[in-house]
Amino acid sequence: MSGAEVVLRADSIGKSYASRTVLRSAYCQASAGEVTVLLGRNGAGKSTLLKIAAGWVSADHGFVEFRGRRHPRPRAALLAREGLFFLPVDRSPLVPRFTLAQHLDALEARFGRGESAARQGMLELLGIAPLEHTPTAALSGGERRRAELALALVHRPRCLLADEPFRGIDPQEAEVVRDALVELARSGCAVVLTGHEMTWMLEVGDRFVWVRKGSTEPLGGRAEALSHWRFRREYLGG
Amino acid sequence: MLAGALQLPAPRHPLFLSPTAAILLVSVVAGGCWVFARRNHEDVFLLALGYARVRLLATFLLPPLLLELALGVLVRA
After folding, report:
1. Within an 8 Å CB–CB cutoff, is residue A151 touching chain B?
2. In A, residues 44-73, which contact B (CB 8 Å cutoff)?
3. CB of A76 less than 8 A from some CB of B
4. Using the beta-carbon criterion (under 8 Å), do A96 and B41 form an inter-chain contact?
5. Euclidean distance between CA atoms A125 and A232, whole angstroms
6. Residue A44 maps to a domain
7. Global pTM?
8. CATH number of the domain that residue A59 is part of
């Protein structure tokens, strides 16, 4: 394990929906400056684990620790105020009638304003500078994903949880998203991702966790994950 | 018929709505859905900004409550 500061820890997490148990005893941690990737088959509980860690869904048991403070019943708004940013896959944080600039202004008003040159540079890095004053309802799927990442980059959170950030975007857009995530991690943010796009996941991830049958298994770094025979056989299928 | 002999009005279906009432009902439901959808879109962004659901609910409830309070004070004065 590296000596980086552990920013987020979700421990002993269990969750059932009606008669279906999604998570039995899951563990996940995110360290400053690192990208942690949750891998697992569909329905394994990756998104549920992220939602619980973000305070969006309450766990049946377990707790979340964020920046050294334990939250037995984490609340989304409180965690957000303390520096956690969650990008869910099924609900966009973009308000359709607002422009990207209005979103960024609101974030800066709430969490502090950075240099305007840095904001412009970030928009150019993401390739959405010309769309700054377009209502977000008019953006394409890939542009929306990049705009959502722009919110995270302007916010500069202590921890970013992104559920399937590479889903439904073309390879060039995926490169931009990868660069943005790496840039965010380099700035000291603890990043946790989920997804099935193994090429991108392996490029961007520092630590890999396998979510399987309601539990989690740390796989270690890139090389260890790829050499884990059971993970290869059951998830990668090779 | 007994109803005719007693000059009672013809019975209506219990779920009968006059056209005006129907239009009003549809408008209220549509308006409610529109407000809900609009708030639903904003909800995620407001959460990202750190505003709790309780506070969001308060934005709905506080203005009419304060108005009621103000009217109550004015009427008593």
Report:
1. yes
2. 56
3. yes
4. yes
5. 34
6. yes
7. 0.80
8. 3.40.50.300
Nearest-Cα distance to chain A for B4, in Å, is 57
Instruction: Kindly state whether residue A169 falls inside one of the protein's structural domains.
Output: yes
Domain boundaries, chain B: 18-76
**Does residue A185 belong to any structural domain of this protein?**
yes
Distance from CA of A54 to the nearest CA of B (A): 10
Q: Provide ipTM, 2 decimals.
A: 0.79
Total count of domains within chain A: 1
| Residue A106 contacts B where some CB pair is shorter than 8 Å | yes
- C-alpha dist (Å) from residue A49 to A24, A53, A198: 11, 6, 20
Strand partners, A13: A26
CA dist A89 → A125, A160, A163 (Å): 22, 13, 5
Contact A53, A38 (CB under 8 A): no
- Within-domain flag for A143: no
Binary contact (B48, A93; C-beta < 8 A): yes
Q: Which tens digits make up the pLDDT trace of A44-85?
A: 999 999 999 999 999 999 999 999 999 988 999 999 999 999
Contact A82, A65 (CB under 8 A): no
CB proximity A144 to B under 8 Å: no
Residues of A in contact with B48 (CB under 8 A): 80, 85-86, 93, 107, 151, 155
Q: Which helix (H) or strand (E) holds A216?
A: strand A215-220
- Which residue segment(s) compose the domain that A25 sits in? 6-94+157-236
Structure confidence by residue, pLDDT tens digits, A167-219 = 888 888 889 899 989 989 999 999 999 999 999 999 999 999 999 988 999 99
| Set of chain A residues whose Cβ sits within 8 Å of the Cβ of B53 | 77
The pLDDT confidence band at residue A238, using thresholds 50, 70 and 90, is: low
